[in-house]
Amino acid sequence: MLKPIAAALLAASFAAPAFAAPQPVEIDLSHTRVWFYVNHLGFSDMYGDFTKFDIDLKVDPENLANSTVSASIDTSTVDMRHEGLNKHLKNQDFFNVEQHPAMSFETTGVTQNGEGKLAVAGNLTLLGVTKPVTLDVTVNKIGEHPMRKVPWVGFNATATIKRSDFGMNYGVPAVGDDIKISIGLEGALKAAE
Questions:
Q1: For the chain, does the N or the C end have fewer beta carbons within 10 angstroms?
Q2: Could you report the per-residue pLDDT of 2-60, keeping only the tens digit for each?
Q3: Phi and psi dihedrals of 128, rounded to 5?
Q4: How far apart are CA 123 and CA 149, in angstroms?
Q5: Could you write out the DSSP letters of every residue in 121-154?
């Protein structure tokens, strides 16, 4: 009696569909931005962004916890809409772009954190120092782009880091130590590789 049941279970296991691989996302740079806020002397939150970056995102729409992301940001493209500030941010006091031309993020794990919410844990490397950082991600939409008629994804992500943890100590605490990071991202969901 056990043999037919075992055979049926074995056959069913081979007939079951394979788990889908995460699908690569072709980032739409016209609708993707990486920016930050830092407090200036208690008077305001100053805003800046990076104009050049490379994001390798793979999304599993059926199980978002299987998704991964790695990113490299060109620190020489930091832009605070002021030539003097930009020049200062690129020197040894801040990003030291000659020695550290990029900062990077690499996923170590993704967990569902409520409806449409993800916690994306990873390692952030800045100024040669690597620290764990968790991005709080909102899944805005996964579906067909209404004009392009192709599968599309959109996410917002935020995190707060202490720049002094990475050795960027200039001006602390007058210039804020807490840096608020925001990422807005859209892109086309491609077939799994």
A1: N
A2: 344 334 433 433 333 345 689 999 999 999 999 999 999 999 999 999 999 999 999 99
A3: 80, 5
A4: 35
A5: EEEEEETTEEEEEEEEEEEEEEEE-TTT-SEEEE
